[in-house]
Amino acid sequence: MRPLLRLIALLCLCLGYALPAQAAVTITFWSHELGNSFPHAFFTLRGIPEAGGAPVDTNAGFTAKSVSPALLMGPVAGKLDIAKPGYVAGSDAQFSVVMSDAQYVAVLRLVEAWSEGKPDSVYRLSDHNCVTFVKEAARIVGLTGLDQPKLMKKPRSYLKAVVAANTGRVTVLDLHGKAYLAGLQPIAPATAITAAGARGIVTSTVPPPVPVAPR
Q1: Rounded distance between C-alpha atoms, residue 116 and residue 213, angstroms
Q2: Which residues are CB-neighbours of 126 under 8 A, at least 6 positions away?
Q3: Residue 37's CB: how many other CB atoms inside 10 A?
Q4: Within 10 A of 86 (CB to CB), how many other CB atoms are there?
Q5: pTM of the model
Q6: Distance from first CA to last CA of the chain, Å, rounded?
Q7: How far apart are the C-alpha atoms of 43 and 107, rounded to whole Å?
Q8: pLDDT tens-digit profile of 72-123?
């Protein structure tokens, strides 16, 4: 049954039925099988804020600044990682959540706080790694069941545990990156705004710059 369910999900994506509304930014959580490339857990941000603005299409993950035996000894310098398109396509889209603008801004604040040189940019293999980073993003968007101590070094297993704990609150994808990306519709023009935006309501909270994905 599982291959059939995946095929149905892919068909729905291609037809546009399974895609979240574009008048908001969607965060999608990804895992990448263990290997020599990092990070093994990250998220993508895609869509347009409800209040209007430029389209968003980027990703963010967290990893060690340098991969060396020092990782096994204790804390090392960490860095924000923006994955290239090929890396995203070779990963697995696990689930997504449509965010409010407030949640979107909070996720950008998280990205800023974990950027290289900031206090949260310290990488610890056991408890401040790529899984911890996506865990904090999941917390921002209101998900529960996030404390899984035994899975903090197992990105795919961790994200699947989060899915199981949040039935009905996430859009389950469970698709290889190429299949998921092939089903995405173009992001709507940046002129799409909400009624509140049309009335000129402006928030005083200005998010940091959105990270730009390499091309």
Answers
A1: 16
A2: 152, 153
A3: 16
A4: 11
A5: 0.78
A6: 37
A7: 10
A8: 555 787 889 999 999 999 999 999 999 999 999 999 999 999 998 888 888 8
